[in-house]
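Two records follow; treat each independently.
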Amino acid sequence: MLENQNNPSNDIFDQLGGFFIKIIAARSNEDINELLTLFISKKVKILESVILNTESVASGFLVDISNNKDSELNKRLTYLLEEGIIDWALKSKEPQMIMDLQSQLSGNLFNILLIPLVYDNNSIGIYIALTDSAKENVDSPLLNDIRNFSFLSALVLSNIALRNSLITLENKHLELNERFINILPLTSIGEISLTVLKEVSLPLQIIDSNIDLIENGVGNLSRRLEIIKQQIKSITEIINLLDEISAEAKKSAPEEIDIGSMLAETLSILSSQLKSAGTKVYLDSSVEKPITKGIKTQLEFIMIQIINFLITNSNDTDSIYINISSPNQRIVVITIREETKGIEFDNYESLLEFIKGSSVLKDMYQNFLSFRHILKLHKGKLECSAVSDDGTVFRIYLPKLSE
């Protein structure tokens, strides 16, 4: 809720700028409803009010506006929707006051005020209020003020809706991440890594930047909203692709994997990122043909996350060393090492805590959390440590297939 609304000074509403200062701080439909009601109540007594998004109207989903089951306005919302009155008001894009027939039947003299919230010639939502004031109280000066204030309300309401859409998309992204953890096969790691790590992050950054510009009143507002809508469309397309990938991944099956070839393929996938980071990778093997059995894209997924961790965590990482060894006939060990100093953790659990607490690395947390599950399915394990003076080391142990 908005602060300091118990005894607000009406002076802040004497100018449009004063209203803007308050409305820009709104974070919900309820906040906008509270401010509009406060303004309109100077000339028209408002008994109850609510703001509905056009999506809610289109779907027929109307929220309760009060915990009071006897709310008079609640009783009228369904009627207004079913009779097409809300749609009529939205299409008119002009404030309307109509007689409340239900109250007339009970001997009361109520009216219903409908104010479409219009921005860029589109109705974003609608303010609906029950009043016992007469139609004559809504004069031309008040109507002009209502149009101006409803424009600002529509802008902020649109911004709130975009934020909520972004939150929904982010939650969907997290849900898909969880599905990747639990689904054994992953499809092409190239598509997964490039889609999840790059394609989603860029639109999110663009959306955040444009929302900040809107809130600070910078630039062309219509253009800002158009950019945000384009980016949300891009993220939606990516999520649809991820849905297809996760469905297709169920068809995969364990296979024999040449670890040397798998690592070479992984480095090929990461070549552009390594080049941008100015990092060289040195790969060597003391095993002639190290073979394990599993799902290649899952193991590539782990390698990609580790290398991304190393190049993201430090700007000083100019070399990464990867070695394949086999201490006995049953085990293959992949060691990934770099020599940047300054960070410390001594096992997988403390690594997770380090990632979770880092503003730069925290987006990798869910991916690293999946390592335990993936390696358990492969009958493998992970050891990792970082010593301030010696650098960072990851060791992945996998079963070795007999020749």
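The next record belongs to a different protein.
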Amino acid sequence: MRYIDSAYGRSVRSDIMSRVIMIDLSKALFIFLSIFIVSFSAFLFFVDQDGKYDEHYELMSHVAQYCESGDWVDIPTYSFRDEKFTENANFQGKIITADMRMKKMTDERSELLFVTNPNFSLVFFGGRDVEIAGRYKEGSQKKVLYVDRIKCIGAEAQENIKDERQEMMQFITKNKNNIIEDPDEFIVEDITFVDESVVYVYMVQKNGENRMQKLYLVQMEKNNDSYTMFTLATYKLDNQKFVLVDGVDDYKNARQTVYEYNKKADRWTLAR
């Protein structure tokens, strides 16, 4: 017979259907639990990653402030696989960027390689005089120093020089008419020191759809409580690059220390 229409047949079909439903519910429960576990694990992972990112961002966004104040930057410890850093190490001097792509830093003689937590970068300190506290790598032919903490000890962190720079930058801002013909139309966006008496002054037009940008190399000569300003070179923006149009620039390869005006603090602050 093709159909079972008896009470017994109906009972068998009900039993089979109940088992099928139980099996389907078990599968659904298993799938649900699997998805929940995977999702929760992913949530915990990304929360952890976000925490690491926030920690990284928070520290790196204040590096210039730490540098200018001469405070230590404490870098969270990181464990390198199969590598041990044991003997305590200290370093004072200039560090340079040996490989920008790989973010490798060395001392000026390339005798010492600096490494740190890979979530953080030492590139900001390239070309600066710093003090470092850390540990040497065990069993390495080349001296490798793991950086635990670092601080600036160069001109940008020295109180007397900071005061002189502030005074000079305030003067430039108030007397930009000595550099540019239409001073009221432009604001000084940033000032870059290449020497204690020579700066790049970057100006941007206040208004306009395509705000004009100008760059000048200026020498500052102090006279008692004032300054005399000499424009050494003038640049114009061409194809997103500044091109020298007048004067001579002997400071193209000099170490640049950039300051931006902080409205909230009402002072010029170290930017990079």
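Discussion point: Confidence is low (pLDDT under 50) at residues 1-23, 40-53. How would you locate this feature using only the token line?
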